[in-house]
Specification:
By secondary structure, this protein is an alpha+beta fold. The chain has one domain: GIY-YIG endonuclease, CATH 3.40.1440. 46% of the residues lie in helices and 23% in strands. It contains four helices and four strands, in the order αββααβαβ. A four-stranded mixed sheet has the order 3-1-2-4, sandwiched between helices. The radius of gyration is 17 Å and the shape is flat.
């Protein structure tokens, strides 16, 4: 019973990887960026939404429907480290800044945004 409680506690203490990822079209110069506090969850959610046809970005959804998942590359561009201060739980500002920095990098590389 103690082992079960210990495992539960360890699970609660786990922090998901946060950062920014990109969905890049193989057939064009377009990409979609998203900064998120949970990279794995956001990527899985995005794949599900695209497959179900419920992605909010209509242009990206249209291309995903036309070319399928194999027409895109999904890659993590950068991860954000957690502060040593255990009390900090809101990384919204850091993620917004990261998003802006990568949008500038993509613009400089002549990438178009979805």
């Amino acid at each position: 019973m103690d082992r079960k409680k210990e495992l539960k506690q360890q699970y609660k203490m786990m922090k998901p990887a946060m950062g920014i990822f990109m969905i890049r079209a193989k057939f064009s110069n377009k990409c979609y960026l998203e900064a998120t506090p949970n990279l794995k969850g956001a990527i899985n959610s995005g794949k599900f939404k695209h497959g179900a046809g419920i992605q909010v970005n209509r242009e990206l959804q249209k291309d995903w429907h036309k070319y399928g998942e194999n027409g895109f590359i999904i890659e993590i561009l950068e991860t954000l480290e957690y502060d040593r201060d255990e009390a900090k739980t809101d990384y919204t500002e850091e993620l917004e800044l990261l998003q802006m920095l990568w949008e500038e990098k993509m613009a400089a590389a002549k990438m178009e945004m979805y």
